[in-house]
Amino acid sequence: MNALPDDILSVAITAAQTAGAATMKYFRSASLIIEEKNDRSPVTAADKESERIIRSIIQRHYPHHGIMGEEFGESIGDSPIRWIIDPLDGTKSFVRNSPFYGVLIGIEREGEIEAGVAYMPALKETYSARKGSGSFCGASRLQVSDVSRLNDSSFIITSSSDALADPDKRGGYLAIQKRARRQRGVGDCYGHLLVAAGRMEIMLDARMQPWDCAALKIIVEEAGGSFTDWNGNVTIDGCSAVSVNAALREEVFSYLRAHEAVM
């Protein structure tokens, strides 16, 4: 049977919360050792332990499913279902003792993301979604805002320096910055979750990987929003991400696609 198992979302929630609890042993620890990966991004024992826990829970429940994780690569399964894991999204925030980091688990079936969980361990917030069933924070259903004018909107960007350094993104970012009512600074996964919850209208990420995107895509979509790459393609493989409410999508992408800000 190709459909997702009925209990798969509850297993994903358990995995994310269990792994997230493990990261809290390291959070704000004076003895935390920070390593540097080949791409110069930080990694810690918390990242690695979190992914090991998630993989163990998945393999116990669904030994035939595939798994792709940021820290330990891909394990090919003999099922059309694949789990996509970011065991600690926002490691740069984590090592600076910021609580705005998360554990992300997306579940893909035959190339489509059909369920996802984002757990914020320090905030004790669990976001989840399943295709066709809505998006939730705990038991509360999420809905993007209905703000329909860019100059009334609030937006977030994980790294303005990444956007400014990319000639294909710089102009679009500056155009949104000029026209939005306000910019706020909480980035990484939490920014996308704020869009899903209707607390922000736009979230921009100039650099992303599939494991950063998989869980967030379904959570934003099931809350009535749009999750795409910077060019508006509905994908987790576009190396960038934009979350936006439905009312602003067309206007936002008219500026992001222009590449040059009208200043």
Features:
globular; alpha+beta; about 260 residues; 8 helices
Describe the structure concisely:
By secondary structure, the protein is an alpha+beta fold.
Write the layout of secondary structure elements.
Blueprint: H1 8-23, E1 34-36, E2 42-44, H2 45-61, E3 66-69, E4 73-75, E5 81-89, H3 91-95, E6 102-109, E7 112-120, E8 125-130, E9 135-137, E10 140-141, E11 154-157, H4 160-165, H5 170-179, E12 182-184, H6 188-196, E13 202-205, H7 210-222, E14 226-228, E15 241-244, H8 249-256
Parallel strand pairs: 3-5, 11-12, 11-13
Antiparallel strand pairs: 1-2, 3-4, 5-6, 6-7, 7-8, 8-9, 9-10, 13-15, 14-15
What does this structure look like?
The protein has 263 residues and is an alpha+beta fold. The protein has 8 helices and 15 strands. Strands 4-3-5-6-7-8-9-10 form an 8-stranded mixed sheet, sandwiched between helices. The protein has a 5-stranded mixed sheet with strand order 12-11-13-15-14, with helices on both faces. The longest helix is centred in the first third of the chain and has 17 residues, at 45-61.
SS elements, strand count? 15
- Structural class based on helices, strands and sheet pairing: alpha+beta
Average predicted local confidence, pLDDT: 95
Q: Tell me the helix content.
A: 25-40%
Query: Strand-residue fraction?
Result: 25-35%
Extract low-pLDDT stretches.
none
Strand order of the largest sheet: 4-3-5-6-7-8-9-10
Largest sheet: 8 strands, mixed
